[in-house]
Amino acid sequence: MIMLNIHEAKTQLSRYLRGLKKGQRIVLCRRNVPVAEIVPIDDTRKRERSPRPIGLAAAEFHVPATFFEPLPDEILAGFGEFGESPDPEAAG
Question: DSSP secondary-structure letter at 88?
Answer without folding.
Answer: G
